[in-house]
Write a structure and sequence with these properties.
disordered N terminus, alpha+beta, 18 helices, 27% strand
């Protein structure tokens, strides 16, 4: 056993034979053990809710899901898809379904229970009246097809009324947080076709009104419009509700929740003790609405005859998901224990996120598909001044509207590496790789050179949002004008996905190389214009003008860009020659020589990381670019002497006007940074703020937020997931570091993924590692355990 000492760390290689033996003796978690622990995290409510703020999520697949709650004895469902984008590139709900039974076992005063079973992904609602009448409704999604089942049973025959309602019952100008054209969007009415035994509804995008057409004109992008594969063009989204014995029962104007609209009803012809309702939500690019209707009708018919197979497939699909990875903290403690809450809420958010397995687009950072009616101000503990919502706002609203902000969206992808959810990382990367032609065309149009220019705030098309763009390419306002950092980070994420999953690099290499080429070609050009030479006196690129995140505008050599370019170049060159074409390898080898250095300065007598070589006017002081050297890029970290002291000095000596960068809300990644430095107490404090019930404002504890964004705040959950994972495990090249910042008083059983298709399973109890298993076995030699002294 090799032992290395440093001033702050004991760093040693575990005797793996002993640990593997201990693991065998103590036993790993069986499938039954995983199920038992996951089931202990089920959310159970014994009181009905007052509004959609008291809803719980039901996760489907391919971006399907819903919010469900029981209010005044009726079951409400907000149906959603991650692909239902309208002409304005706004992500809209599919609509609202309301279920009512008569006689009603869920009437006021009943013995009530609503449970989210996350292991098999179903919501079960039960009620019992004082007279003994019982009722049960079970909600679940087919994992192969876009079908939602609502199955009702009762001890007394009942009449079921199933209603579909939309607040989009007329063309209206509504504030959806859309930052393209002044904050208001013309939202076109849904079309509803009530039939004898079903209700069909849909929204068909008007191609003449697509916002992308206006973006193209505004940005003089007409010569390159063919590079845009517009997701909203010819899109139809909506659905069909049907059920055996249900017939049309008219329509009416309604005032539900905080919105008014119109509802159409289906009603049982006769009372029955069992009702099976089939809801088919369908989103598809289709020019012929009649063909769309035929498909939704066929899916509804198939669902009625395939229900048994669909149920078995769902159960296996979700069981396989939960076996990928887990983090169970203080598993025997229960809900009153803060650490147990963190473990549960980690799994609850991962469950919500799992709705996007097989999805075409990344979940939106500002609410994903689980947005709801804006809650009352009294429910909101943070950033209350941001939520002055007008009376027209509906469940479609989300702060920041249709923006895809890279600095936020990245946190929907990163946690999937350690959790082994590679299919949940892919949509985030696909968003960029699919839009690579657009980004390269922008470089050609505005500057006549190569490489990809992805702006920070993007529209669904890949173009910058209109209000934040100009005809010559740069962005406004100033804090976003030259914010190009995130394309480097997504390139690095792609490399990490390849290293974790074993995917073929070739599908991502064009994107990665194009990102690097942009910095090479653009900033050689910029420096040549200013000074008459392409590089500085040391042969290095001068990366000016660039923003340092949203912190500084027009900075030189911002640290997060420099660190990212260094790391993607190192990673590319670490692949064997067979994986990287010779031309690309030669280019990266030459490029590496010109990447600037990371800069340092002195503050309070301590050497700290400099946010940029030259920086000036400040904007968003909650940003912390210096910490990008730690995460995601891993240049400095616990267990490595280089840069660790300077990183700690930077954390401890931030200027007084930047202290907000040490907070935890929303997209802020402070638990990850603390873990990477081995700051155990800071990591513990911050992960409690992130993932425990301490900041839970709504009834469902993993509806995190609001922070800087909307409810439920998905980059809050994503940064919390990554923080908890990093407290247990992080990678540096082939090395796997364990327990860099794990609290000694928290017992944990975990299964996480590492690079090179490695899986690490372990158990830590009473301050000691009692079991550890690594697969494949030869990776045991790369395990390094960090124990803080």
């Amino acid at each position: 056993m090799k032992v290395f000492f440093s001033k702050r760390w004991l760093f040693f290689l575990l005797p793996m034979i002993f640990m593997a033996k201990a693991y065998a003796e103590n036993g790993g978690l069986s499938i039954a053990g995983i199920k038992k622990q996951i089931n202990s995290y089920n959310v159970v409510w014994t009181e009905q809710s007052e509004s959609s703020a008291g809803s719980m999520p039901l996760s489907g697949n391919k971006g399907m899901g819903l919010n469900a709650w029981v209010q005044d004895g009726d079951i409400f469902l907000y149906l959603a898809s991650n692909e239902s984008y309208d002409e304005n590139s706004d992500l809209l709900k599919l609509g609202c379904v309301r279920l009512h039974l008569s006689p009603n076992p869920f009437a006021t005063g009943c013995k009530f229970k609503q449970e989210l079973d996350i292991y098999s992904s179903q919501i079960i609602i039960t009620g019992q009246l004082k007279n003994g009448m019982k009722g049960r409704i079970r909600l679940w999604y087919d994992v192969r097809r876009p079908v939602l089942y609502a199955q009702a049973e009762s001890s007394v025959p009942t009449i079921l009324t199933a209603s579909f309602a939309t607040w989009r019952d007329r063309n209206d100008s509504v504030g959806l947080g859309n930052y393209d054209f002044g904050g208001n969007s013309l939202v076109r009415a849904d079309i509803v076709n009530p039939n004898k035994n079903s209700i069909v509804w849909y929204h068909q995008n008007d191609n003449s009104q697509l916002i992308v057409n206006q973006l193209i004109r505004k940005q003089n992008f007409q010569p390159f419009s063919s590079t845009i594969n517009d997701f909203t063009r010819n899109l139809i989204f909506g659905g069909m509700i049907s059920g055996k014995g249900l017939v049309a029962a008219g329509s009416e104007t309604v005032q539900w929740q905080k919105w008014s609209g119109r509802a159409w009803h289906l009603k049982s012809q006769k009372a029955a003790s069992a009702h099976n309702l089939i809801i088919v939500p369908l989103v598809k690019q289709e020019t012929d609405v009649e063909k769309w209707k035929e498909e939704v009708s066929l899916l509804s018919h198939q669902a009625t005859v395939q229900i048994s197979d669909a149920q078995k497939e769902r159960e296996q699909w979700w069981a396989d998901f939960w076996q990928r990875s887990y983090i169970f903290i203080n598993p025997q403690a229960g809900v009153g224990d803060t650490a147990w809450q963190i473990g549960r809420n980690y799994q609850l958010f991962r469950y919500m996120w799992a709705c996007n397995r097989g999805g075409k687009l990344p979940l939106k950072f500002n609410g994903g598909i689980f947005t709801m009616d804006p809650p009352d101000p009294g429910l909101i503990q943070h950033y209350t001044s941001h939520y002055k919502i007008n009376a027209k706002v509906t469940p479609d609203y989300r702060r920041w509207g249709n923006l895809f902000m890279g600095q936020n969206q990245r946190l929907i992808g990163w946690p999937g590496l350690a959790s082994g959810d590679f299919d949940l990382v892919s949509p985030s990367l696909k968003f960029y790789t699919d839009r690579l032609p657009v980004a390269e065309a922008r470089s050609k149009l505005y500057w006549n050179h190569g490489g990809a220019a992805f702006a920070e705030p993007l529209d669904l098309s890949g173009l910058p949002v209109n209000r934040l763009s100009s005809s010559n390419g740069p962005m406004s306002p100033a804090h976003l004008k030259y914010h190009l950092s995130m394309q480097v980070e997504f390139a690095f994420m792609a490399l990490q996905l390849v290293k974790y999953s074993g995917e073929d690099l070739s599908s991502y290499l064009p994107f990665i190389e194009s990102v690097a080429r942009f910095y090479d070609e653009h900033y050689r050009m910029e420096n040549l214009k200013r000074t008459g030479r392409e590089y500085d006196e040391n042969g290095k690129l001068v990366l000016f003008p660039l923003n340092s995140l949203e912190l500084y505008s027009e900075a030189t050599d911002p640290v997060e860009v420099v660190a990212g370019l260094k790391r993607i170049t190192e990673e590319i060159l670490s692949f064997p020659p067979s994986k990287v074409p010779l031309e690309a390898r030669n280019w990266f080898e030459a490029f590496a020589k010109h990447i600037p250095d990371i800069n340092f300065e002195t503050r309070n007598g301590k050497t700290v990381i400099k946010p940029a070589k030259i920086y000036g006017r400040e904007y968003n002081t909650t940003d912390f670019p210096e910490m990008y050297t730690l995460w995601p890029y891993g240049l400095f970290h616990a267990g490595k002497s280089e840069g660790l002291a300077e990183a700690n000095n930077t954390w401890e000596n931030l200027p007084s006007n930047r202290q907000s960068a040490l907070e935890f809300w929303s997209w802020m990644c402070t638990p990850i940074y603390a873990a990477m430095m081995g700051r155990r107490e800071d990591a513990r404090r911050l992960i409690i703020e992130k993932l425990s019930n301490k900041n839970a404002n709504l009834k469902f504890p993993a509806f995190f937020g609001p922070g800087h964004d909307w409810l439920p705040d998905h980059n809050w959950g994503g940064s919390g997931m990554a923080g908890l994972q990093t407290m247990l495990l992080f990678n540096d090249q082939s090395d796997i570091f364990l327990f860099p910042a794990w609290p000694k008083e928290w017992d944990v059983t975990f299964k996480l993924h590492a690079s090179e298709k490695t899986v690490v399973e372990g158990r830590y109890e009473n301050g000691k590692i009692v079991a550890l298993q690594v697969s494949p076995q030869q990776r045991e030699q790369d395990i390094k355990v960090l124990i803080k002294q």
